[in-house]
Amino acid sequence: MLDKGFAYEVEEGGNKSVYFSVEKFSKYGKLSKKDINELLAGARVDIDERKNSPLDFALWKASKEGEPWWNSPWGKGRPGWHIECSAMALRLLGESIDIHGGGADLIFPHHENEIAQSEAFTNKPFARYWVHNGFITIDKEKMSKSLGNFFTIREVLERYDAEVLRLFMLSSHYRSPIEFSEDQLKEAEASLERYYSTVARMDEFIALNATKELASQKDFDLIKWFNSFVDRFKERFEEAMDDDFNTALALGNTFELIREINRFLDSKPEGQRAATALMKAKEAIGLVKEVFNIFTKTPYQWNVELLKIKKISLTPEDIESKISERNLARKNKDWTLADRIRKELLERGILLEDKREGTTWKVKV
Ligand SMILES: [Zn+2]
In this predicted structure, what is the pLDDT of residue 152? Predict the structure, then answer.
């Protein structure tokens, strides 16, 4: 950059610093859409004598007393903050990279400076796409180490399944801030619960109806409508994702599908055709699984995971044996005992559901 005239040296206490000359790079400001003249007008207050222009930034900093340093052609010093990223990207990823990510606060000056120095050096586009994420906020304040209002993912994962955290993150657009709260996590958990309960319902239905031939005319129309809804879902999901990763809309579409599946089941269709329609719906949801890495468990695995996370000291085997005990009590018409077992389990966070095919359990969310 020195050879090409994009940079200049400045003597500082026996060593030299190297600065990038922003005005030499005509595309400066293209990422942050800032105008160089406005920037100059705004920068006049803190004029640094060593620099040709207040916008110039250090590529190499001469070392000051007590600072770490390396030997260099300019004496003792260290790399400027921005150059670290350009140097690593150039060395490890090549002259042009496909996607550069980062927080929205880094657009200016950091990413703008990365572009300036990389493109001045290589004369090639630095990054084909820039993806800037919004902040996680707590009570509308940015979550940060310096504010002390942060906690780690590890801490959150002690209390919630990873899918809950993913669903929470995906429910906002990546460029917007995300307001972090216990309520939001609980809401995400409840959404997942709704999904896994729906899958359990679907699986039961498919098992019962997969070999039943009959379908009435009423069911026939309903199934036809449901099939076309499922087909449209795939298109709508892809459309949302193609629109700058509108994950919130894609999830909205997903939970609309789940609502329709439940309505379909509520209207009690019967037979093989209805089972096939539900299998198609399950397959469509596979797209969500693949793209978002949520919905990856079976309803049973989800509930076993919840036992652990909610610190319920019962194993699935414990619960099954309680259910057998209750079945026996019911067989003997000992309703008091049957009811007591159900209540005791509920107090520990286990819900029993009595169905035609027997009793199932799930963790209360
Ligand atoms: Zn960087």
Answer: 85
**pLDDT for res 151:** 79
pLDDT tens for 53-105 read 889 999 999 998 888 999 999 999 999 999 999 999 999 999 999 999 999 99
Compute, in angstroms, the gap from residue 90 CA to the centroid of ligand 1.
12
Q: How far is the CA of 123 from the centre of ligand 1 (A)?
A: 19
What separation in Å is there between the alpha carbon of 140 and the centre of ligand 1? 26
pLDDT in tens, 2-31: 999 999 999 988 899 999 999 999 999 999
> Which has the minimum average pLDDT: 43-57, 84-98, 112-126, 214-228?
43-57
Task: Give the pLDDT of residue 275.
Answer: 95
Ligand 1 centroid–CA 114 distance in Å is: 7
Q: What is the 275 CA–ligand 1 centroid distance (Å)?
A: 52
Q: Which residues surround ligand 1, an ion (CB under 5 A)?
A: 85
Kindly list the distances between the CA atom of residue 348 and the CA atoms of 204, 310, 362, in Å, as whole numbers in the listed order.
26, 10, 11
283 CA from centroid of ligand 1 (Å): 40
Alpha-carbon gap, residue 89 to 80, rounded angstroms: 15
List the domains of the chain with CATH numbers.
7-133 (3.40.50.620), 155-300 (1.10.730.10), 312-363 (no CATH)
